[in-house]
Design goal:
Blueprint (H helix, E strand, L loop, with lengths): L1 E7 L12 E9 L1 H16 L6 E2 L2 E2 L6 H13 L4 E8 L11 H13 L5 H15 L3 H24 L13 E4 L9 H20 L14 H6 L7 H5 L3 E3 L6 H17 L5 H10 L7 H4 L2 E2 L6 H21 L8
Parallel strand pairs: 1-6, 5-8, 6-7
Antiparallel strand pairs: 1-2, 2-5, 3-4
Helix pairs in contact: 2-10, 3-4, 5-6, 9-10, 10-12
Length: about 325
């Protein structure tokens, strides 16, 4: 199973009274449908004007209204693909202590380090705590949103891609991420490599990765390759399988970038009817109830009425898209 991720927005906290959201776009593509998905994507790209490309690479933010509609239509028609956006609500974080993710995580790591019995592990945790503490607020929020998107995409893919057709796809996993910096092994990558399994494991305690009784049996590749008997081995799923790949070299990341642009148009600024319709059409390739499918993610308490008001348009757009498109994914 192949997973691709890109982002939109700078994860900068808005000023008082402002509104902000950080977007991470996740895509899951099973091996059985990969060739057809990318064939259709290539056909879509071949019809775009040169203005939709930067340095030879297609960019979602450069699409005009007509091609945004064509993109949403193409995504809604792709076989087997799963779309999972995550939107970190920055509005509720502004001025809140929870915004200091780097400091909070660094402090928890130092507390963990003090309990480590083995010197080597103790030193590794101490070094990680220092690296995390040196991240900016924007970097830390960005990494947390990436981890949440990866976690949710895996969880949704386990449910959606549970049929016999997709079994062999679970023999190997690949996670391709558009790097934030051009220097391999930079601080963000070092921190994310260590924190990704920690975050996902922590979240899965409260929201375990669900499997389907009667389908995910002992001989199913997902179970055989990644299960420990007490749950999925998160560390093993990510070990050697997370790759930082330039979007110029990854069609999957390019597709994630374009998907993120449709989300951004619907949620940032003043969204018009066309943007919301495109978003709703694209989101027929997501699963879960409409409120969950839009992928809202909070790190600080938010007034529920205000929260629902700000994002109600997205929920309505998903409901509308699923009602209008026969064969939309189900709502487990």
């Amino acid at each position: 199973m192949k997973f691709f991720f890109d982002e939109s927005g700078n994860f900068q906290l808005p000023p008082a009274g402002g509104h902000g959201v950080g977007i991470v776009s996740g895509i899951a593509i099973p091996d059985s449908d990969e060739a057809e998905i990318f064939r259709r994507f290539d056909a879509f790209l071949s019809k775009l004007p040169s203005s939709s490309f930067k340095n030879g690479e297609p960019k979602g933010k450069l699409l005009d209204d007509a091609n945004c509609k064509a993109l949403a239509t193409m995504l809604a028609d792709l076989p087997g693909i799963l779309l999972r956006p995550i939107m970190l609500d920055l509005t509720s974080l502004a001025g809140q202590p929870q915004a200091q993710v780097a400091s909070l995580v660094s402090r928890k790591l130092m507390e963990l380090q003090a309990t480590c019995r083995h010197e080597t592990f103790r030193n590794q945790i101490a070094e990680l705590a220092l690296d995390v503490g040196r991240l900016s607020v924007q970097q830390a929020l960005r990494l947390a949103a990436w981890a949440k998107c990866i976690s949710r995409t895996i969880q949704d893919s386990i449910i959606l891609h549970s049929g016999t057709k997709y079994e062999s796809s679970w023999n190997a996993l690949s996670f391709e991420i558009d790097p934030g910096e051009d220097v391999p092994g930079n601080r963000e990558e070092r921190v994310f490599e260590a924190m990704l399994p920690m975050w996902v494991t922590s979240w899965s305690r409260d929201e375990p990765f669900a499997t389907i009784e009667g389908i995910h049996t002992a001989d199913h590749p997902l179970v055989k390759n990644w299960d420990t008997g007490e749950g999925l081995d998160i560390g093993k799923m990510f070990r050697t399988n997370v790759h930082y790949v330039s979007s110029a070299k990854s069609k999957g990341i390019q597709l994630a970038d374009m998907k993120a642009s449709l989300v951004k148009r619907a949620v940032i600024g003043v969204a018009n009817t066309k943007d919301l319709q495109n978003y709703g059409l694209m989101m027929t390739k997501s699963i879960g109830k409409s409120e969950r499918a839009c992928g809202l993610f909070c790190l600080a308490p938010a007034a529920i009425d205000d929260f629902n008001r700000r994002y109600q348009g997205l929920t309505d757009a998903i409901i509308g898209g699923r009602s209008a498109v026969p064969g939309s994914y189900c709502e487990p």
